[in-house]
Amino acid sequence: MDSFFTRSTDSSAVFPFFPIGQHNCLGSWDVFLSFFHSFTMVPNPPLLIAMQHPPSRRSVLPTFPGFMSFAPPPPGHPRVAIYVSHTFNQHLSCSTIFHDSSEILSVDLFSPEGLFGSPHPSLRVTSVYLLRTNPPPYRSIPPERMFSFLSYPHLVLGDFNLHQPLADPCHCLSEIEFAISTRYFDAAFEVPYHLLKTTRVYTRFPFDSISRPSVLDLTFAITALSPLLSAWDNPLPSTGSDHVPCVITLKPPAIMLRPPTPHWALLDLDEVGQALDAFTTLPCPAGPTPNSRIRWFNISSTCLTSLLTSHAPIKRPCLHSKPWWSPPLSSLRREYHKFARISRLDPSTLNCSNVESS
Questions:
Q1: 351 is in which domain, residue-wise?
Q2: For residue 262, what are the β-bridge partners?
Q3: pLDDT at 53
Q4: 311-353 pLDDT, tens digit each
Q5: Which of 90, 20, 92 lies closest to 247, judged by CA?
Q6: Alpha carbon of 47 to those of 16, 81, 163, 249, 351: distances in Å?
Q7: Which candidate in 157, 187, 202, 254 could, as Cys together with 143 as Cys, close a disulfide (CB 3.0–4.6 Å)?
């Protein structure tokens, strides 16, 4: 079931940064209010909140000025919620996606010009709260429902209630815990998603003094989202929950220069021909196996490629390089500046019309 709201515009101009908050509120109204009021302590407050275990009364979420709230429809107590800032809501289009479960909810963000300076017009954010179940598979949502392949960026975040060495290498796991968490991590890496989190940064601190801190709040991002990811951090103060508020920041990708490449057009063929005549490959191994043949081929191919690139000049594109520039554009540019100089010396109607026509 989907619902649609708002409009679209150039997101990179309106939102140079797009912070996404994530927090488990333990069903407490005090934690909820403390969490939202803490936004005044950071320079870039979250514009979208993925919340787990939100407080509610008769399946109705609490409201907060400046935000719209969305939750899975009844029946059942909503275990997740997504709050969207009115600032964001006024400029971009959003649609909510319900997954027939109270523990998972998604929001699709849309802009026809591309989101946050990327070529992708859509971005999906999914809030998840995995609950423990006694019978197998021991968690309320199967991994294939969370980690599905999408042609556009997808961010999955929430309280996973999973212990895994990749997120918390110091945690001693039982065989059952390892098997359960491995199912979800393998399903994520297969798509592929990658874990967006600093290892061993604890996200849950139990109220008792016996239990150790753990890493339960996780964020997975599909590979297409990598250029937009700026930071994962927990800059907000404690809200009274045993979970730490997390903030994931998206921003337009930086201008990346192309790496230096060989300029094959300037390759000295005579010099390369002499080098190739003297080039010899390693002898093929006696009694080769499939692995040894592959190794021999890779080494020989690398040596040959290195020989060719060592004789080719390197192109080093600068920040202001324009690969689309052409000689006709250079001619038009000279003509424009010629008439512009003449019009500055003699600002007559004829000279100004020549500049406009050029």
A1: 327-357
A2: 314
A3: 93
A4: 888 776 665 566 667 788 888 888 888 877 887 777 676 655 6
A5: 20
A6: 12, 14, 29, 10, 52
A7: 187
User: By C-alpha distance, which of 24, 46, 41, 34 is closest to 247?
Assistant: 46
Q: By three-state DSSP, how is residue 175 classified?
A: helix
- Whether 216 and 188 share a structural domain: yes
Phi-psi sector, 280: left (phi>0), alpha (psi -120 to 50), beta? beta
Taking 50 as the threshold, does the pLDDT of residue 21 lie above it?
Answer: yes
Give just the sign of the alpha carbon dihedral 71, 73, 74, 80: negative
The verdict on residue 256 lying in a domain is no
Residues 217 and 296 in one domain: no
At position 158, the amino acid (one-letter code) is: G
Task: Tell me which amino acid residue 184 is.
Answer: Y
Please give the pLDDT value at position 9: 46
**pLDDT at residue 26, as a whole number:** 93
- The edge-to-edge listing of strands for the beta sheet with 93-98 is 2-5, 93-98, 104-110, 122-129, 154-159, 217-222, 193-195
Q: What is the CA radius of gyration of the chain?
A: 28
Report d(CA 207, CA 198) in Å as an integer: 23
**CB of 242 within 8 A of CB of 26?**
yes
Give the Cα separation of 112 and 143 in Å (integer): 31
Number of domains the chain contains: 3
Q: Is the pLDDT of residue 220 over 50?
A: yes
Which residues have CB under 8 Å from 195's CB, separation 6+?
Answer: 166, 167, 185, 188, 218, 219, 220
Shared domain for 345 and 271, answered yes or no, is no
State the average pLDDT over residues 112-138.
81
